[in-house]
């Protein structure tokens, strides 16, 4: 069953976003947009006329990406704002600056992701902190602005890797991490766990957004490992290079499902659903578990200091 799933989601490089939507007067935030599919997503949105906020950790790389995206898109409405998703202080500072300087937010694309061991400055497991908790806090801090500018959308980039994930709530409560250990296998497992967090977050978020005109979607971009770009350890990049070169999508192909979820007309009734290859897909039960999604939300609120 899993082999068929992998073939359908990765080997078939397939569909493109067909939306012709123009975004003049709209503002979009894309996290992790100085590289990979985040940057390619930003270029497309800027070409459509959006004001694009590049939310990236590294000032030097972010500003270089801003200049490149302006050249590629022909748009001057591309702005870099520093955001370190591994720092609750940085996330709060970003949100405060954004809300003061930008009157609109129409689309929030939670794209950034890493596959690295370590801890955040707040003591969280690095992949839990960056891949899930940082985006959880960012989304909650910006939610009122999204509601004010509705109809609006939130895109949570996950991965088919979520199918191999699990949430160890005991470990989260005791160690503020999804798992312990430093082996190669543990690295991949914790990454998969963090992608399951993305799916569960999206599931619970959709329930909490009912009755608003804000919708949310999660997706597999079609790159499983290669979407992580430079934010993967060197050893993992070397090991997987022959596989990713043969099987996985390039960044233009890889960003199509993100663009579909951000732009496609008429998918509002599918809020909370999971997409791959520009097509809505069914999730396995563990990624739409109401109790687990609610529990993760409540733990995340507590760890972020929202309650």
TrEMBL record:
<comment type="similarity">
    <text>Belongs to the short-chain dehydrogenases/reductases (SDR) family.</text>
</comment>
<dbReference type="InterPro" id="IPR002347">
    <property type="entry name" value="SDR_fam"/>
</dbReference>
<protein>
    <submittedName>
        <fullName>Dehydrogenase/reductase (SDR family) member 13b.1</fullName>
    </submittedName>
</protein>
<keyword id="KW-0560">Oxidoreductase</keyword>
<dbReference type="GO" id="GO:0016491">
    <property type="term" value="F:oxidoreductase activity"/>
</dbReference>
<dbReference type="InterPro" id="IPR036291">
    <property type="entry name" value="NAD(P)-bd_dom_sf"/>
</dbReference>
<dbReference type="Pfam" id="PF00106">
    <property type="entry name" value="adh_short"/>
</dbReference>
């Amino acid at each position: 069953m899993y082999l068929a799933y992998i073939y359908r989601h990765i080997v078939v490089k397939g569909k493109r976003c067909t939306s012709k939507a123009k975004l003049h007067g709209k503002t979009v935030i894309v996290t992790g947009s100085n590289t990979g599919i985040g940057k390619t997503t930003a270029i497309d949105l800027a070409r459509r006329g959006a004001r694009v906020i590049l939310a990236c950790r590294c000032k030097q790389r972010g500003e270089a990406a801003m200049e490149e995206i302006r050249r590629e898109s022909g748009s001057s409405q591309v702005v870099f704002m520093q955001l370190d998703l591994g720092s609750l202080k940085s996330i709060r500072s970003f949100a405060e600056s954004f809300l003061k300087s930008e009157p609109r937010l129409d689309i929030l694309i939670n794209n950034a992701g890493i596959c690295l061991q370590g801890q955040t400055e707040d003591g969280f497991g690095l992949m839990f902190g960056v891949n899930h908790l940082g985006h959880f806090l960012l989304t909650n801090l910006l939610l009122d602005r999204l509601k004010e500018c509705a109809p609006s959308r939130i895109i949570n980039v996950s991965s088919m890797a979520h199918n191999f994930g699990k949430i160890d709530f005991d470990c989260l409560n005791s160690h503020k991490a999804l798992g312990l250990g430093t082996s190669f296998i543990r690295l991949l497992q914790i990454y998969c766990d963090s992608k399951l967090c993305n799916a569960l977050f999206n599931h619970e978020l959709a329930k909490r957004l009912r009755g608003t005109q804000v919708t949310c979607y999660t997706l597999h971009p079609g790159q499983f490992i290669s979407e992580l770009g430079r934010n993967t350890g060197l050893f993992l990049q070397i090991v997987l290079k022959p596989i990713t070169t043969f099987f996985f999508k390039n960044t233009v192909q890889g960003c199509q499902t993100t663009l579909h979820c951000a732009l496609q007309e008429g998918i509002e009734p599918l809020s909370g659903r999971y997409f791959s290859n520009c097509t809505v897909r069914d999730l396995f039960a563990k990624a739409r578990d109401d109790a687990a999604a609610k529990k993760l939300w409540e733990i995340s609120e507590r760890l972020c200091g929202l309650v």
